[in-house]
Records
---
Amino acid sequence: MKKALITGITGQDGSYLAEFLIQKGYQVHGIVRRNSTLFRSRIDHLHTVDESETSSFLLHYGDSSDGTNIARLIHQIRPDEIYNLAAQSHVRISFDMPIYTVDVDALGTLRLLEILRSIDWPTKFYQASSSEMYGQTTVATQNEETPFHPRSPYACAKVYSHYQTVNYRDSYDMFACSGILFNHESPRRGENFVTRKITKAVAEIKKGLRDTVVLGNLDARRDWGYAPEYIEAMWMMLQQEKPDDYVIATGEAHSVREFLAEAFGCVGLNWEDHVTFDEKFLRPVDVDMLCGDASKAKAKLGWEPRTKFKQLVQLMVDADMAALEQGQ
Ligand code: NAP
Ligand code: G4F
């Protein structure tokens, strides 16, 4: 049985990736942070009573800021594949917590790469890079060759991790891949990212539980895809003969305003009657437009997005409506 180690397993992507790898027959090990509660809503359904060495799903306490703990876990587990998804992943919050964000999102990756340099078995490494690295780009659709112009502490940290991943691959012949993923969403998306914030509000407004949602910049354009399809691409990258970097995106960009119109439209409401503005949701600088060109992933991995923008919005609104009906 192949062993995969996932950092960030409690997050949106980590939870989908864990499900996907278990279905593929992997033994999945996840690193979780110590919290005051054991509530881990995205992965609670994966728990089994079997906590023996042969269980398909095992969790370990750890933190990307603690290299000795991660090293001990890697030596104990001896994973065949490592997916580094752990991050302080909120761009606006990275302006409030730049040092912490860099410690986890940049140095956390370097700590892992340094551990992998010294192990004596072959392991494949996936780094969760981001389209935020393109930042204030002037290129209409961004691919693997497009220069980076990061616009936040988060994006700077991700650029650092991307280049270290490439550097360790070149320097030490490591099987290390950087997946440059554009925004991907789902009903498991954190509630303070704009798509989920909107779909949750739409459901609550439709049910009469509130009347407004407060937002920041509505002009930003993003390339939004469906998360369960994006985690498949991560796995595909590690199954290739040679390690490489890939853009994963839909190739279609929409503004926050368009997302609002679509989401409120799903329940027969006009967004302009329910949206107010607060500058606290603005960033010191924002990224105006991101739109990815995933032709390399299509040609080499055979990966293509399947869920279109309208379907994505609909499925997120439906899930938030259903959750309310079930009293969640
Ligand atoms: P997410 O939902 O915010 O999940 C982040 C995960 O990282 C959580 O499991 C979190 O644990 C964990 N984490 C945070 N700080 C940590 C630390 N110090 N030590 C160990 N674990 C820590 O993010 P996501 O949307 O699944 O994204 C996964 C990865 O892809 C991230 O690296 C993100 O930056 C990157 N990415 C995401 C997108 C996107 O659109 N979703 C696009 C490009 C790249 P807790 O549950 O304990 O907080
Ligand atoms: O949903 P967002 O917070 O996502 P953002 O900043 O694009 O970052 C996400 O995608 C990246 C990939 O490109 C990931 F690397 C990163 O980890 C994260 O998953 O904001 C999207 C846009 C921004 O322009 C923001 O200014 O929506 C705008 N926005 C407007 N009002 C808002 C709000 N964003 C948030 N979070 N909350 C608002 O009230």
---
Amino acid sequence: MAQPSNRVFSGIQPTGNLHLGNYLGAIVKFVAMQESHECIFCVVDLHAITQPFAVWGGPEKLADHTREVTAAYLAAGIDPKKSIIFNQSQVIEHAELAWLFNCVARMGWLNRMTQFKEKAGKDRENASVGLFAYPNLMAADILLYRATHVPVGDDQKQHLELTRDIAAKFNNDFAPQIATLGHGEAYFPMTEPVIEGPATRVMSLRDGAKKMSKSDPSDLSRITLTDDADTIAKKIRKAKTDPAPLPETLDGLAERPEAANLVGIYAALSGQTREQVIGEFGGKEFSTFKPALADLAVEKLAPVSGEMTRYLADPATVDGVLRDGSDRARAIAVETMREVKDIIGFLS
Ligand code: TRP
């Protein structure tokens, strides 16, 4: 199978409480890339279970959370006929390639992963082996489809570097076989992260130093994708700010994390740059800017939330999308695994 030239892969974990950070940092970009790329969007349920039940909701919640991410993809405008939407556990080749990558990646590489350190916290002995090997599964997700581009938030940059390291080591270790079997000099591509736009990091509405997160105890810290118009407006009204008006230049946002966050959110929702937003609102008080942001957020998010609610009321349709997407993803994945097993020398 020839290496594709512009294939996108990305994924979101089904851990519940999808929020504005997921939407602006990932989903909106996914929608945009459909026009120019062949896209595969995954609900990474095998990744979700690397953490304790309390984080992903446990077995009673997993199906609902999987449907929630799927509904968000659909509600935001990903077209399931054009792009592939599926959940990871239905394509078992993800786990198979991840095992092979467990044997390519080195302990030292994974020991440097900052996300593992953050998620494992102090009690590292008690973290799951899956959490440690998480980046290898992510590399498998991407390279199973030999994806060339991966839209992600900036916290995933290190995992993308690891993906390239794994691809490079595989290409190098098996270079003679890769050449003999007619795949040229490299089997796996050097996948590029796509990290851009004004909202690659959406911060908490209560603390500009913390990322917006599904697990923050304060509901006011995040706008979730199922919030209705009144709730969205209320959360923006109550968002933490400082007393000064918005600065006249972007530099003036440097020491003002809350203001910077709201400007970034406004820019992303309106499809403008942060410069343009400062051009319009520089020098204005938050009493002017916040209502404008609330109106914009309601205008952009309420329809998505409405569509999501509609999909969530129709699980049969959502499950059908995932089944169809899984069949199409599997067709590609099976082919890659056949070639990879040949390269490594497995008898089949
Ligand atoms: N690790 C990603 C996150 O937490 C989710 C993810 C899993 C992913 N596999 C992926 C993202 C493959 C992009 C490509 O956001």
